[in-house]
TrEMBL record:
This is Helix-turn-helix domain-containing protein. Residues 223-321 form the HTH araC/xylS-type domain. Pfam families: DJ-1_PfpI, HTH_18. The keyword Nucleotide-binding does not apply. It comes from Streptomyces brevispora.
Length: 338
């Protein structure tokens, strides 16, 4: 019997040039440069591309040695651009031209933090939505007036171009790209090895500088309410019901919840239900109506509507793409951390 052919590794090109941030290089390398195939994560082929083979000096006495030229971008399944130490650093002409050609080929391109400035220099963000660190939004607007700058998102997708907010949001985007291409379980496995959340809810609005408030005496109560909702996803929840559990009025509860998580209670709940449904679809052979019931959607139709809105796919197609060996009908409903 002929051997099963080995799947071609997913190819990621890290675009490097003088001025890129060492932290973002480390994030990209940690997500795609570590072999986790023994834990069920697909094989990745991460390459450090540059216009020339000479080592690139990074801040902090570090250096990066390219192992491919920019020509390798034509082979990449995904291109990732790190942020910049100086956000107005001009990218080399060959880098900008290579990015333009890649976008014309419809290769997905992701920029972390100030990497949005590099995409903007290439003209790729003209007329498109993009995000960067909240402290750089005015700078991006000033120097690239054609960009539709989004102020508070953790990451934004527009026309096969991804941009993310600052620092930790780059991790969020990288894990999201893994989740989109390879499923929630692969992203969760990588997140566990990095000791980080598979995804964060909310927006970067919760991190924008404001006058320091008094300690939020309701934080522990809200954490308990979120934990309760996660362990009882199958139950119907309303803002009024969750507010009563927290001992608050619905209006006060919604205000404190948004201040703590960066998002509204019901939006947060939908995100948790989708994540739980993704895991059941990947890990079990439960019928779709049962998945919908266990995760609180109530009906397969409702679950399908939310998958279409948030994931641009259907539960059935998601299962076909990411289903693993069934764990059996007695599997507990998996859920993210509060």
């Amino acid at each position: 019997m002929p051997a099963t052919p080995t799947p071609t590794p997913y190819r990621i090109a890290l675009v490097s040039f003088p001025g890129i941030r060492a932290f973002d290089v480390s994030v990209i390398t940690e997500v795609w440069g570590v072999d986790r195939t023994d834990r069920g994560v697909p094989a990745f082929d991460l390459r450090r591309t540059a216009a020339a083979p000479a080592p690139i000096l990074l801040r902090g006495g570090l250096s990066l040695t390219p192992d491919r030229t920019l020509a390798w971008l034509s082979r990449a399944d995904l291109i990732v651009v790190p942020g910049l130490d100086d956000h107005l650093t001009p990218a080399p002409g060959p880098v900008l031209e290579a990015l333009r050609r890649a976008h014309a080929r419809a290769t997905p391109i992701a920029a972390l933090c100030g990497g949005a400035f590099t995409l903007a220099q290439a003209g790729l963000l003209d007329g498109r939505r993009a995000v960067t660190h909240w402290n750089l939004t005015d700078l991006l607007r000033t120097h690239h007036r054609g960009v539709k700058v989004v102020r508070d998102a953790l990451f934004v997708h527009d026309d096969n171009l991804w941009t993310s907010a600052g620092t930790a949001a780059g991790i969020d985007l990288c894990l999201h790209l893994v989740r989109t291409a390879h499923g929630a379980e692969a992203a969760a496995t990588i997140a566990r090895s990095m000791v980080t959340a598979p995804f964060r809810t909310g927006t970067q609005a919760q991190f924008i500088e404001h006058p320091t408030p008094h300690a939020d005496r309701d934080a522990d109560t809200l954490a308990e309410v979120r934990a309760f909702a996660l362990t009882h996803l199958a139950q119907p929840h309303t803002v009024a019901g969750l507010a009563a559990r927290a001992g608050m009025s619905p209006r006060s509860f919604a205000r404190h919840f948004r201040a703590t998580t960066g998002t509204a209670p019901l939006r947060w709940l939908i995100t948790q239900r989708i994540a739980a449904a993704q895991k059941l679809l990947e890990r079990t052979d439960l019928p779709l109506p049962e998945v919908a019931r266990r995760t609180g959607f109530g009906s397969e139709i409702t679950m399908r509507q939310h998958f279409a809105t948030h994931l641009s796919t259907s539960p059935r197609d998601y299962r076909l793409a990411f289903h693993h060996t069934p764990a059996g009908p007695g599997v507990d409903t998996p859920g993210p951390q509060p």
